[in-house]
Structures are given as structure tokens and as C-alpha cells.
Design goal:
The structure holds 2 protein chains of 2 kinds.
Chain A lengths: L8 H5 L1 H11 L9 E2 L2 H4 L16 E3 L4 H13 L3 E5 L15 E5 L6 E5 L4 E5 L4 H9 L3 E2 L12 H7 L6 H4 L6 E7 L5 E5 L10 H5 L8 E8 L1 E2 L4 E8 L2 H13 L6 E6 H11 L9 E8 L2 H16 L5 E4 L3 H12 L1 H8 L2 E4 L2 E2 L5 H15 L3 E6 L4 E8 L4 H20 L18 H4 L2 H14 L24
Parallel strand pairs in A: 2-4, 3-4
Antiparallel strand pairs in A: 1-2, 5-6, 6-10, 7-11, 8-9, 8-10, 12-14, 12-15, 13-14, 13-18, 16-19, 17-19, 18-19
Helix pairs in contact in A: 10-13, 14-15
Chain B lengths: L4 E2 L4 H14 L3 E4 L15 E4 L6 E5 L4 E5 L4 H10 L2 E3 L7 H4 L7 H7 L6 H4 L2 H4 E7 L5 E5 L11 H5 L8 E11 L3 E8 L3 H12 L5 E7 L11 E8 L1 H14 L5 E5 L1 H12 L11 E6 L5 H8 L3 E5 L4 E6 L3 H13 L3 E6 L2 H6 L8 H14 L15
The chains are: A alpha+beta, B alpha+beta.
């Protein structure tokens, strides 16, 4: 179980006064009340995508402008009040989990697209615009915003920046950090700062890079300038199923060695294939131990050429099944199962934890074997999806939330998987963030002095540890978060 | 009597040397092979510390698209090892021997510390985008790691990006791990003779806004590649041979309205982009100052005009503006004003020492950000002994 710092009694005692002050800073506007404080209406904000943890905040503020965010932060800073930034609340690592004495700053009302510039291939959007909202806005003109986390329908760009979100197409297009030009942000002191801009390389320190993926520890992002890209002429997928995970892993190596950079290279293990097939009836081969979905881009002729080469490569590995989509519809059918993977697992298990480690891709067979052994030891089922091109592994651990013991076992199993990821040369999180979920595992990846250094850099932005505290860094040895009791 | 140049043989010795300098409060100029010693401001230090003793590739997994090398490893050594497996550094970092002098090979640590990227930056990202992990030593002599050796990693604060482009002022990088990719099987370019720079950038934007995957987009005001006169817009495709031919053909059709077109075959294209990568078409004379300006591409031609300089080279679709001209404060002020009007950033990239010691070589930061910068510097280098004065006076 994750422990949270004790709330500050002085802040709790002043709740009514704080709410009144916040109401004056963010008054009721056309979109409704600017501050939420009634117990019942705080409910939706008590958790995020990591729903096993719940804690209603002191209050929720829903600003509509950067200036309002600045005013709220100035007030909270002056009064020693902790602040939790929140986008859509889709974090799978508890990045938006409140504290009892904290004010949640929800950015969902800042959802305007401020500028689209096709000549310079950029868009300026507010933090509460959804990831897919950007692509939808420019798609008619043939453009898109590249990172595509699976929550893209709901998740917001401000959250994507803070988690450095990835997606299935990172191998070719990179993660959030590689697709940003600039940020407008507010410091805990309420100063509005811009970093980067509309140009590619900034002179001076790479604040944009440091802030991306900083999980709300350093500042609150209110505006984001993203690169938008012209979409390729078309894309098509193929499916290749194999008799063993090692064989599929070797096929992945051979694809990379061929010089082809697929836009997506997804790997599913047997339990995942079965769950997805039962859910989506995508025609996945149930006898396979592992399956790849490979997607390429280009003109129809280029797709034919690349898929032909890929078919030849996969053919060398004694595949059970090789299916090359001939049309966009067939391509969608191949993707249908993979895209529904989380829902599919949700159907066979009441609850699941979605883990997110990264491993050197060569370690995949070993890691899957160990996960299988652990699954037997813990008595919990697990299905694995894997971004095979970049080594990002998502084991889905199935459990029953009504049974506390089952949940604790699932958490312990997940922790063991992440430790294994670090042990083989990988890391705790590839794209979901540390949040509260992996906070106490940080000592597995970093030395005490490395953690102290990162904490000190957090302290350079937020000396009083008011911004999203109790996330990312273990509570021990942290003088800023000494427990009151 | 202490040596003027410290060249520790390994990371532990390097950390010990920095710890000793920290204890003594003695500033150090940090360098690899010193290939870009004249970059930015002169460093206020009697002694130099070089990473050149830390050399060699420590891990290369072509199938995992990962290479790790000690900071002092020369760029050509890494490029050769990658080429053997048909791979390359995505950001195409330049050697810049034409600007800083030949004979001192850039090290990979130096290229990361200066975040220098070549033409492929427009499509593939900058050096900073491919630094997956680092090992480094703080200004107190403490070794730390950030990132790792995998392609996707959001564990903890990204100190790789903080150190990339920090010019050795926040820590001395001892080892880097980079993402690499398969090198293209083939390449070729479309050259368009355009009426003026503004038309040229519009042509580049049209190419970059096409679905054909343009991997280089530069504008040469005086031409000069493949015997073609300027202004010349150059667009590169790097793909399998079939795709290069197809895409250049489509691009030629799509951009026909921008000017007379010529196709460059692989050899001519490679030579042209090698020249752009090294900023050769800029034609900077040895005594001239060189500025590197980063702006929104469509504003690039305006920056050139406002600078009053005729020596210019535009890369990254028009957004990277190289300028060369008289090394005088008035000229510098003019470039700065032009950049600020365009909402971008500048670097006084190379200049005789009196100029670069006298003026701000980088834009000032807003006060709130500068204050954070000082606090971050105090965390990593509390006594300010690493490359003092390199980026900003008194810092």
C-alpha cells in the first residue's frame, strides 16, 4: 500500500476561508462555478485511472485562463497549500491522486485551440485540449499530432506533457517530448513563464525537455505549442503469428536489421491473443504463442513493397499465420483486437492493473518466461502487450478488487515485474509515469544520491514542495514531506 | 605546480579531479577534444579538464537501436561502427571543421553537451531527442545517471535533456546512450531555383507539408551545390531506392510552381547535404562572426533581411538561419533585434574573443526563469566551477 503524507492540520482547519478566497480568484463563469467544495461533487476528483487509490481533495478549482491559474498558485504558495494539477484524470500511475489538504487545479476548461499554422507545421493549444482533439482539428487538412496514447480520446495535452506520453507509433514519430516546441507554464510562485516557442531549437538550458515528463512536480502547464505533421499517403498492417515468443522476438530483430522502420510493431502473447479474439473476433490465430502487428506507411505501391519484404522476413521464422491486409478495412480488422486489448482483458477479469516497464528488446523471451513463472506463483493471470520496437511492455495483471488480498497480490506481482525490468537493463516506466504507483520502487532504479539530486532539482522549482507532492519521489529521507504525526 | 590540462583516464579519476577542484573552489574549462573551444563565451578558468581519456563504445545493440559510448569517443569512430551495421546517428551532428578548424575531432560528449544537430533534425529530431541515457559528474564530483539504455523511459526527472545543450555548465558528461536508426538504403534531392528567399521557404514548407517524408529542407541563397545557382531550395528524401524515385517525382510535380527544378542523384545529394550539414554554403570568412538563429521557418527570410547580412544559409525548412558577417557589436545587436522581432532565439556561434566576451551570446531569460536557472545551477555546481562564463557572463 502507498502511504501519503499527513495533511497539514492548519490548512484543513481553514478550509472554509480557503474556499472563499479561491472563489474570489476564480468566480463563476459561463462554464459554471469556478470552485467545487461540496463533498458529493468532489467525488469525481478523488481518483484517476489508478482507481484503487482514492482521496477527496480540499477543493477543486477550474480556471479558464492562465492568469487565473497564476492567481490560484500565488494564493496557495503564500498560504502553504498543496496543489494537484489535473487534466482528464486518465493517469494510470495515480499522477492526479489528490491529498486531503490539497487544492486540485483542473485544466479541463482550458480547452481552446488557439492557433494552427500549417506553413510552420505547429498548433498552439491550451492544456485541456484532448490529444485526439488536436489531430481531429487538423485531420481534414491531412495533418496529425503524432503521439497517440491509448487514452487519446480523453487524455489532455497538458497531462501528456507532464507524463511524456507515448503510444503505439513512437518507433517512427517519437514520444511527446519529441513533438513539442514550447510551453506556457505557471510556477508555484504564480509567475507565468514561456519556454521554447515556435522554433525548433531553444538556446540556453532545455527547460522544455526537463519539464516534459516532470509529472507536475515543477510547474503547471497551461499552454502547449506542438508540432503537427503531414500524414503519410496511407498505411496498412499485417499480422504474423509464431510458435514461440523467442521466435517472434527473433523476427522483430530481423525486421529491425532489414532497415525497415515500421510505424508500429506490436507484440501480443498468447493470453492476450485469446482475450482479444474473444472480445473482438479479429481472426487472431489462437494456437499461436505470440503475434506481431506490423504497420507500414506510404503509397499503395510502397506499402506493397514494404509488406512484401516483411512477409518474406517473417516467413523465415516458420510462422503459423501471415496475413497482409489488402485494404484499409482489413487493416482496421487486424488492429481491432489490439486496440481493444484493455477492454478485452476487462471482460475476462473484474479488474486488472496495467503495468508499464521498458526492457531491452532482446530480453523479451526471458522476461516473458519469468512473468509466466511469477503468474503461477502469485496465482494471478497476466496478459502481455508489448511495443516491440521500443521495448515498452504492458503486462495486464488480472485480479478482483472486491478481494483486498487479491489486490495486494496484484500490486506485489506488478512490483516484481518492474524490478525484473530494471534488473535486465530496463526501467520502471516507459510512458505511464511514476506517480504514486511506482514511487516506492524508485530506489530500485536510482541510488540514494541520484534521488537526492532529482529532489533538489524539484526543490529549485518548488522549494516548499507544494506542487503534486508525495508523487515520484519516495517519502523517506524527504524533509519537505515529514509526516506530522 | 598543477598541470594546465587535466586528462583523467576514467570516470572515477574525473570525478576525483572535479571533487578536488570543488574543494579548492577552482574553476575548470570542460572540453572533449576542444573542437569547439571558440563556441559561445570564453571560459574564465586557468585549467582545463578533458574527457578525451574516456573513450570507446561501451555497448552497441543494433537490434535494440541503442549505442553507448564514453564521452571522449570521437564522432567518426561512432559513425564508422554504426555504418558497419547499416545504422546512423539520427540527428546527423556536424563536425564544423570549416568553422572551428580541422584536426580536432568532435567527441560524442561534446556534441551532446552542445546539442548540435544537422539537417535531419527537421524530420528525425535533435541530438537531445535521442539521448536515452547519460552518466555525468556534478560540480561537486558526484557521479549520477539519468535515463537508461532503453528507448522509452519516463522514470524520474529527465536530466539527460537538462545536461544536453548545457555546454558543460551543469555537469560533465562521462557516457551517453543514444537511440540510432537504420541508415536509409538510398537518398536523393530535389533542387528548385527560386526567385527569392521567401518563395524558397514557401517551397520548403510545401514539401514538408507533403506526405512524402522530406528529411532535409534547406535554402542556399547563392546556390553553389551541384553547379546550380541560387537562391536554391533543396529537399531531401531518404528511403528505399524505389521510394526515393517515386517521392522525388511526386514532390517535383507538387512544387513545380515554385521554380525551375533539378533532381540530384544519390552522390550529388549526399555531397550537397554534407555541405549544408557543415554550414559550408554560408561561406564564413575566418575573421567573421557566425550567428545561428532558430526561428519559426516562415520568418527566416525576414531575419536574413533585417540582419543586413548577405552571407546566409537556411536549414530546417527555413527555421535555422546561419548568418556570417562583421564581428562588431552593432552587427550583433542587429541580429539580436531581428531574432527577437521574429520571436526566436540566437547564438553568437563563433566570433573573435573580444566580441564574444563583450556581448550576450545567448538571449537573456525572463527573471523568473533565470532565478530557477540559478537555483538549478546551485544544485549541480554550487561553487560555479564548471565552465564559468561559457553561456552567460558571471554564470
Amino acid at each position: 500500500m502507498i502511504s501519503l503524507p499527513d495533511p497539514k492540520p492548519a490548512v484543513l482547519a481553514r478550509r472554509a476561508e480557503i474556499v472563499a478566497a479561491l472563489r474570489a480568484l476564480v468566480p463563476t463563469g459561463p462554464l459554471g462555478e469556478g470552485v467545487i467544495s461540496e463533498e458529493l461533487r468532489l467525488k469525481p476528483y478523488e481518483t484517476d485511472g489508478l482507481s484503487a487509490y482514492r482521496q477527496p481533495p480540499l477543493a477543486v478549482v477550474l480556471p479558464e485562463t492562465t492568469e487565473q491559474v497564476a492567481a490560484v498558485l500565488r494564493y496557495c504558495h503564500a498560504n502553504g497549500i498543496r496543489v494537484i494539477p489535473r487534466g482528464a484524470g486518465t493517469s494510470l500511475s495515480g499522477g492526479a491522486l489528490p491529498l486531503a489538504d490539497a487544492v486540485v487545479i483542473g485544466l479541463m476548461r482550458m480547452n481552446r485551440i488557439l492557433e494552427v499554422d500549417y506553413e510552420d507545421r505547429l498548433a498552439v493549444v491550451e492544456a485541456g485540449v484532448t490529444n485526439l482533439g488536436i489531430t481531429n482539428h487538423v485531420a481534414a487538412d491531412g495533418f496529425f499530432y503524432a503521439p497517440d496514447p491509448s487514452s487519446q480520446l480523453a487524455c489532455m495535452i497538458g497531462g501528456n506533457v507532464n507524463m511524456n506520453s507515448g503510444g503505439a507509433h513512437c518507433l517512427k514519430y517519437g514520444v511527446t517530448a519529441n513533438n513539442l516546441l514550447g510551453l506556457k507554464l505557471v510556477t508555484i510562485e504564480g509567475e507565468i513563464i514561456e519556454v521554447g516557442g515556435r522554433h525548433l531549437d531553444a538556446a540556453g538550458y532545455d527547460w522544455l525537455g526537463l519539464l516534459t515528463g516532470s509529472e507536475g512536480q515543477l510547474a503547471i502547464v497551461t499552454e502547449v505549442t506542438v508540432r503537427i505533421l503531414r500524414a503519410a499517403e496511407g498505411q496498412r498492417a499485417m499480422l504474423a503469428a509464431f510458435k514461440g515468443t523467442e521466435i517472434a522476438g527473433a523476427a522483430v530483430d530481423a525486421i529491425i536489421a532489414s532497415g525497415i522502420i515500421p510505424v508500429a510493431l506490436e507484440f501480443m502473447d498468447k493470453p492476450c491473443i485469446h482475450a482479444c479474439e474473444a472480445f473482438a473476433h479479429a481472426g487472431y490465430p489462437l494456437e499461436a504463442e505470440a503475434m506481431l502487428i506490423i504497420e507500414v506507411e506510404g503509397s499503395t505501391e510502397e506499402q506493397d513493397m514494404l509488406l512484401g519484404k516483411l512477409k518474406e522476413i517473417c516467413g523465415r521464422f516458420d510462422p503459423i499465420s501471415l496475413k497482409v491486409a489488402q485494404t484499409a478495412e482489413e487493416s482496421m480488422a487486424i488492429w481491432k483486437g489490439r486496440k481493444g486489448a484493455f477492454g478485452a482483458v476487462g471482460r475476462i477479469s473484474p479488474d486488472y492493473l496495467c503495468m508499464d516497464g521498458t526492457i531491452p528488446t532482446g530480453e523479451l523471451p526471458h522476461v516473458l518466461k519469468r512473468i509466466g513463472e511469477m503468474s503461477a506463483e502469485y496465482g494471478l493471470q497476466v496478459a502481455n502487450v508489448f511495443h516491440a520496437g521500443d521495448g515498452n511492455l504492458h503486462p495486464l495483471i488480472m485480479f478482483d478488487a472486491n478481494d483486498p488480498e487479491s489486490f495486494h497480490k496484484a500490486e506485489a506481482f506488478g512490483a516484481d515485474i518492474l524490478k525484473l525490468c530494471v534488473e535486465v537493463g530496463g526501467c520502471l516506466t516507459g510512458e505511464h509515469g511514476v506517480g504514486v504507483e511506482k514511487r516506492d520502487l524508485m530506489g530500485v532504479q536510482f541510488s540514494p544520491s541520484e534521488l537526492a539530486l532529482q529532489r533538489a532539482i524539484k526543490g529549485a522549482f518548488d522549494p516548499d514542495w507544494l506542487l503534486n507532492p508525495a508523487k515520484v519521489f519516495p517519502l523517506e529521507d524527504n524533509p519537505a514531506l515529514q509526516r506530522a504525526a | 605546480m598543477s598541470e594546465a590540462l587535466l586528462a583523467p583516464p576514467d570516470e572515477a579519476a574525473l570525478a576525483a579531479a572535479i571533487a578536488a577542484a570543488h574543494a579548492a573552489g577552482e574553476p575548470l574549462a570542460i572540453e572533449g577534444n576542444g573542437s569547439k573551444r571558440e563556441l559561445l563565451r570564453p571560459v574564465q578558468a586557468a585549467r582545463s579538464l578533458t574527457t578525451r581519456g574516456l573513450s570507446g563504445i561501451t555497448l552497441y545493440r543494433p537490434q535494440e537501436l541503442i549505442v553507448s559510448a564514453l564521452a571522449g569517443t570521437p564522432l567518426p569512430e561512432i559513425e564508422a561502427a554504426l555504418a558497419e551495421k547499416g545504422q546512423h546517428l539520427i540527428a546527423e551532428p556536424p563536425m564544423l571543421a570549416g568553422l572551428f578548424g580541422a584536426g580536432r575531432e568532435p567527441t560524442i560528449g561534446g556534441l551532446v553537451a552542445t546539442n548540435l544537430s544537422g539537417p535531419r533534425r527537421i524530420m528525425g529530431g535533435a541530438m537531445r531527442d535521442h539521448v536515452m541515457g547519460i552518466r555525468a559528474v556534478t560540480g561537486t564530483g558526484e557521479v549520477f545517471r539519468s535515463g537508461g539504455r532503453v528507448l522509452k523511459n519516463v522514470t524520474g526527472l529527465d536530466l539527460c535533456k537538462l545536461l544536453t545543450g548545457a555546454h558543460g555548465t551543469l555537469g560533465v558528461i562521462t557516457e551517453v546512450t543514444l537511440k540510432v536508426l537504420p541508415a536509409p538504403a538510398s537518398s536523393g534531392s530535389l533542387a528548385l531555383r527560386v526567385a527569392d528567399l521567401a518563395t524558397g521557404v514557401r517551397a520548403l514548407s510545401a514539401g514538408l507539408g507533403s506526405p512524402y517524408g522530406v528529411s532535409g529542407a534547406a535554402l542556399l541563397p547563392s546556390g553553389g551545390v551541384a553547379g546550380l545557382a541560387g537562391p536554391l531550395a533543396l529537399l531531401r528524401i531518404e528511403e528505399f531506392a524505389e521510394s526515393v524515385a517515386y517521392r522525388l517525382g511526386r514532390l517535383r510535380e507538387a512544387l513545380a510552381g515554385f521554380g525551375e527544378a533539378a533532381l540530384l542523384g544519390e552522390d550529388a545529394s549526399l555531397a550537397a547535404w554534407q555541405a549544408v550539414r557543415e554550414a559550408e554554403p554560408l561561406g564564413a570568412a575566418p575573421e567573421e562572426a557566425v550567428w545561428r538563429v532558430s526561428v519559426k521557418p516562415s520568418t527566416g527570410p525576414g531575419v536574413v533581411a533585417a540582419s543586413g547580412l548577405d552571407k546566409a544559409l537556411l536549414d530546417w525548412g527555413g527555421g535555422l538561419v546561419w548568418l556570417a558577417g562583421p564581428a562588431r557589436p552593432e552587427q550583433h545587436a542587429r541580429v539580436v533585434a531581428a531574432t527577437e522581432a521574429a520571436g526566436g532565439t540566437f547564438t553568437l556561434f563563433r566570433a573573435p574573443e573580444p566580441l564574444r566576451a563583450a556581448v550576450a551570446v545567448l538571449p537573456e531569460e525572463p527573471p523568473a526563469l533565470a532565478a530557477i536557472g540559478r537555483r538549478v545551477k546551485a544544485v549541480l555546481d554550487p561553487k560555479g566551477i564548471l565552465n564559468p562564463g561559457r553561456m552567460r557572463a558571471g554564470f
